[in-house]
Please model this.
Amino acid sequence: MIDIEKFTEVIAKFLAMSGKILPDDITAKLEALSAAETIPLAKSVYESMLKNQKMAAELNRPSCQDTGVINFFVTAGEHYPDLGKIAPALKEAVRRATVQAPLRHNTVAIFDEKNDGTNVGERAPFIHWDIMPDSDTLRVETYMAGGGCSLPGRAITLMPSAGYEGIVKYVLDTMVDWGINACPPLLVGIGIAGSVENASLLSKKAILRPLGSRNPNPKGAEMELLLEKGLNDIGLGPQGVSGTASVMGVHIESAARHPSTISVGINVGCWAHRRGCIVLDKDMNYEILSHKGARL
Model:
């Protein structure tokens, strides 16, 4: 048995913290991009971004007013107790964090077009599940999917003759058309699979990877680097004012496909990439992987 009340409170506090303080890798990348920037206006924007993060921490306020719609990616150890209680607890944690953080009221009911101010609703927060064999821990990854960074989200199934060149063209066209709306510099996640739903899910998982990690296939890793260079050459710059970079990184996740189709999904994280990762044991001891040394 686990202390479900303590679990709920830990996740609520973690959500509140991850909405105010960016992950370590994102902060480090923004600092590096700022140091490398040569265009005065772009450099000034980076300085404002970094100041914004400093003030958010000092004032205990969300780092962006759009705290997004909450996504959970849960990797449950097969021996972790009370798994049936986790989903309701995550919903309650979102409800509490909405008040405690606070989080902006972003969850709008489909068809009824109502917002009840709790950030909880039909399949909201959205929870994705994976099982980890021979483990008794619970890994919870959180993501605040804001309106701007969600706008470039796209998925398509291409004819196999389009090949990987077709994927590259689709990604570049999407970023040229929509990337400026997503508050660059961006973290671009790409999923490649045999159907659009698989590609879309993989593209979301791709932006949860730590910056600097690479696709395990050498060809996939090379494609990530080539796309990163190509997108940076567009020169969107911070907040689209032009600059030497468009992206913080490009991550690709893939799944084997049917020989007759090749599908690509795109998900984007904005510069204020509010990703969090926490691992808990059954006694509610926890380690925060995304924000080293942080305590709740």
